[in-house]
Amino acid sequence: MYQGYPTHGSQGVPAMPPVVYPGYVGSSVPFAHQLQGYITNAGVAQPSQGRPPIPQIPQQFHRPPLPGRPLDDETDPYGMNKRVKMDSTGILVSEEEWLMTHQGPINVQIQCPTIPEKPEWNCQGQTIILENLSLATLVSTVKDKIFAQLNFPAGKQKLTIGGAVMKNQVSLAYYNIEDGGIIGLAIKDRGKK
Q1: Cα 112 to chain center, whole Å?
Q2: Which of 37, 49, 53, 101 is at 20 to 30 A from 167, Cα to Cα?
Q3: Number of helices and strands (H, E) in the chain?
Q4: What is the distance between the alpha carbons of residues 173 and 9, in angstroms, rounded to a whole number?
């Protein structure tokens, strides 16, 4: 049996005779606190002979920001600067740049689905045109204009461009939509807002 266990006698208390349990076989393995390099409650390694000290891990490290993303989340609390699609060059310009380079109102084509079970929505696979839209027009406003033409409830609409679902709170310029651009219309999935 390992002889290095602390006893009551080592602390000024008289040693007690060991308790013997029938069938118990003692171990020769020391307790963890008796090993060299044992980590204390303070989280600091005890010096051990022959081992180099444990290097300190830096509390904070800096990594460069990802391209096209803001440096900190405070400049973009709602995640609006995240791009969801790319043009043929692989780059979308910011909403501000798009508004500076593209002037005047635009016409947008809306590709409607065929919904025979809801004839009141007037969707038979046709393409409708929304005319004279500002690039600053919000997607939610586009949905309202579709409702005015088709009677398709805005809350049931899902608009897509380039495979990405358009968010209500952003403008057409955010998606770099040009004059004559095509937006897909579909029924919003059940259970989603």
Answers
A1: 31
A2: 101
A3: 2, 5
A4: 82
Sequence-distant (≥ 6) Cβ neighbours of residue 51 within 8 angstroms: 36, 37
Nearest to 81, CA basis, from 68, 66, 63 = 68
In this prediction the pTM is 0.54
Distance CA 142, CA 42 (A): 61
For 105, residues 6+ apart whose C-beta sits below 8 A from its C-beta are: 131, 132, 133, 134
Give the rounded distance of the alpha carbon of 103 from its chain centre.
34
Is the distance from CB of 120 to CB of 153 less than 8 angstroms?
no
CB 143 within 8 A of CB 154: yes
Per-residue pLDDT 10s for the chain (193 aa) are 555 555 555 556 666 676 666 766 666 666 666 666 666 555 555 555 566 666 665 555 545 555 554 444 444 444 444 444 444 555 778 888 888 888 889 999 999 999 999 999 989 999 999 999 999 999 999 999 999 999 999 999 999 998 889 999 999 999 999 999 999 999 988 765 5
Sorted by sequence, the CB contacts under 8 Å of residue 58 that are 6+ apart come out as none
Q: What domains sit in the chain, N to C, each tagged with a CATH number?
A: 84-187 (3.10.20.90)
